[in-house]
Amino acid sequence: MRGITKEFPGAKALDGVDLDVEPGEVHCLLGQNGAGKSTLIKVLAGAHQPDSGDLAWDGEPVVLPSPTAAMRHGISTIYQELDLVDGLSVADNIFLGHERARFGLTRRGETATAARDLLRSLGHPEIAPGTEVGSLSPAQQQIVSMARALSHDTRLIVMDEPSAVLTQDEVGNLFRVIGELTAAGVAVLYISHRMAEIRAIGTRVTVLKDGRTVAGGLPADTPTAQLVALMTGRESAYDFPQRVPGGEPPERDEVLRVEHLTQPGSFEDVSFTVRAGEIVGLVGLVGSGRSEILHAVYGATRPASGTVLVDGKALPPGRVTAAVRAGVGLAPEERKSQALFLQDSVVRNVSISSLGRFSRFGWLDRRRETAAAAERVAALDLRPADPQRAVRTLSGGNQQKAVLARWLLRGCRVLLLDEPTRGVDVGARSELYALVRELADSGVAVLFVSSEVPEVLGLADRALVLREGRIVHEAAAASLKESHVLDLVMEESAHE
Amino acid sequence: MSDQTTPRPAQEDAPGLPAQAGSGAGVATRPSLVKEGPDPGAAGPGGGLGRQLLRLFPLHQMHSLGLLVVLILLGVVGTATSGNFLTSNNIVNILTSAAVIGVITVGQTFVIIGGGIDLSVGAIVAVASVWCTTVATQSHGLAGMLFTAVVVGAAVGLLNGILIAYGKIVAFITTLAMMASARGVAERISDRQSQVVTVDSFNRIATDKFLGIPLLVYLMAAIVVLGWLLLNRTTFGRHTFAVGGNPEAARLAGIAVRRHTMLLYLLSGVCCGVAAVMLTARTTSGASNLGNLYELDSIAAVIIGGTLLAGGRGSLFGSILGVLVFTTITNIFVLNNLTTDIQEIAKGLIILAAVLLQRTRGARSPA
User: According to the UniProt record, where is the region Disordered (chain B) (predicted)?
Assistant: First the structure.
């Protein structure tokens, strides 16, 4: 791959990526969230078309207009979210899309035999081809995914964080399988944040940053410090608002207190506090439990144990309505599916959590509702400044403002933001940061989650670093270095 | 070939050039072509009025406008084919036969906008009807009968709602089960006999008139107005749209989604109870086969009324127009002594046409 670029509206996801993968090697791809790894994979899989750049396969230039074309060339992709059909059997999943069939009739016996052979070669003869995929463990499902990849004449397998769903033993088996594949001349493009894994199986490493290859084909034993240095030092394109002049935020009352929040498998014994006027950032990798913690605080999920207190009063666990009544608001990560009523107007989206204020015995005073919502919309400088516009026609940044306006109107004490700048273009980000700071200055306690370390360091007063569901470090954000945080976030737990 | 192509650019240029030059003729022809439409037969009478109405109604009520046009066209067809169509007697007939299904459709509209479906409405009507006409209930007189019908409807609706909202059983399946078993309960209570209503004041609900219009029509009108207000002017209505449009977002916005869902089915049940009173009074007897297939009629009316089956979007006004369209078709067929088979085919075609219309509208609106 040479000079691949890919632009999305408002963001350049790939900006000149070079990547060479040789037969029989395990090539590791390293980069922070947002560095362009996922987009790169999709280009390779034929799911996205590059805007410029060349792909060469076996020395010949190729175009991959569709996933099927990529498969025909022998490129298979195992995505982070497994793309199996739960209701179908193992064998049917493996041969989905290229069924063993004659005259449209599937040849069940042959399919089952072929599936069994593939699974045996992967070292998992215990997975019966007739089993329904939905009943398998995540690790077993991944084996099925891999068998599916191999059922094509595969020469390059792309694996996007395959170890994220696996236990230690299962990772060992995965490595054994990868070893066998590479010995047979298959190339593997392996994406992982875990340095130890890269050390264990990688042949070479390519590092991406901001959609660009910053180092290609490094030996896998390149020192961690050097790799981290390559990944960081990102030029921040955003202006972060000034923290309170004088450095130290004034001592204000504690608003949110979280004690020993635990949800086995997601997060363990998480305790922290957020004061009024303070912005606290949670950093961690995908799967470190960051969003899950926010949802538990908000009552959207019920944690196994632990307490959430707002203004000293414990919230009943698992009750969003109670949390909202206590003054907590959430701007979720998936704005469109979790926060917005896309077909409705901005006013209706903003007022939905505060309707009680504009009604008497359930009867809505629409004039007051519209006026109040429009006032908040104007205060946030939401554009276009037409509160009757359907919210789906707004840009990502303005949709996020609509969600913030909802909680502003409600007058919340604690604001939870999950990846607040996701899908928001660069220009609008600085504006959102300023807005969040303004909200904090007005006395709101802000807790936000971000996978972008510079964002947390730039915006937050205090940062909590999460790894595998535990808070491993807590410090004033201004005193932290990006490389240090990345080290903390990526390090394999010592006791494992 | 060349003869045809040469004048064409000239024609295209003509309005453009004079417009730039400020010629009155060029400016005048352009807008009239764009806005009024070239076909005076189709758009002539409706065009100007249509635009007036467009300013009055927001864009999402366009669909109702289309239905209104369909209704007017049906009126034209009816008047043309039968001299009896455009008589006050016949109009009252249409409204009276729309009354029962109209009331049921109000509840159904709420349920569907809220993201659900109620297949049990016809069966609830049957249970409420036979329960309020048992000898024991009739002994309590009019008030006892009315109370029983509404409470039975509400109770069955509430049961639906609890099973769907808290038991997390899919609405389609829950109400399908209720459709079967409620009808069974009705048969058991009545022993499949019709139960003649002996309370005179009860039967008068269907026969009494005010200003020449039956009480039933006023009743429907009142419930439609109340329903419209509830849907469009209260927090309950707003929450209904939210819950149907995006239940996850509604939950995270702090709406008690499950309780609201339950209340929607309760509301549908109450509507069925009222409809049971109306239908029982009309037939002067309670029977377990009353309200048969009403679920399909009401769902069809809601769908052609422009409400999305997926929820989150819809109009009560449209639903009622849908009911009127169906009853008017039936009326025209009856007046012309046509068989019901063609009538059913026509209904089916209208449902398909309405859904196709909805799709083109849906495709256009995101732009």
Answer: 1-45
3-state DSSP call for residue A314? strand
**pLDDT above 90: residue A266:** no
How many whole angstroms separate alpha carbon B165 and alpha carbon B138? 34
**Total of domains in chain A:** 2
Nearest to B133 by CA among B271, B270, B274, B284: B284
What's the CATH code of the domain at A125?
3.40.50.300
Q: How far is A320 from chain B (nearest CA, A)?
A: 6
pLDDT at A25: 85
Query: Per residue in A326-347, pLDDT tens?
Result: 999 999 988 888 889 988 899 9
Give CA angle at B345 (B272, B343), nearest 5°.
70
Instruction: State percent of chain A over pLDDT 90.
Output: 12
Written as six digits, the tokens of B209 are 């008139």
Q: Does one domain contain both A313 and A355?
A: yes
Residues A128 and A200 in one domain: yes
Of A233, A225, A195, A230, the C-alpha closest to A454 is A233
Is B234 within 8 Å of A323 when comparing Cβ atoms?
A: no
Residue A88, pLDDT above cutoff 70: yes
Q: Identify whether residues A77 and A126 lie together within a single domain.
A: yes
State how far residue A363 is from chain B, nearest Cα, in angstroms: 4
Q: How far is A361 from chain B (nearest CA, A)?
A: 9
**B81 in Cβ contact with B212 (< 8 Å):** no
Residue type, B213: I
B259: contact with A, CB 8 A cutoff: no
Residues A223 and A273 in one domain: no
Q: Which residues contact B237 (CB under 8 A, 6 or more apart)?
A: B230, B231
Interchain CB distance below 8 Å, B233 and A366? yes
User: Are the beta carbons of B246 and A356 separated by less than 8 Å?
Assistant: no
Measured between beta carbons, the chain B residues lying within 8 angstroms of A340 are: 246, 249
A273 in the same domain as A220: no
Distance (Å) of CA B134 to CA B185, B207, B270: 13, 21, 19
- pLDDT over threshold 70, residue A248: no
Q: Which residues contact A318 (CB under 8 A, 6 or more apart)?
A: A299, A301, A302, A303
Measured CA to CA, the distance from residue B210 to residue B232 in angstroms comes to 29
- Please tell me whether the interface predicted TM-score (ipTM) of this complex is above 0.90: no
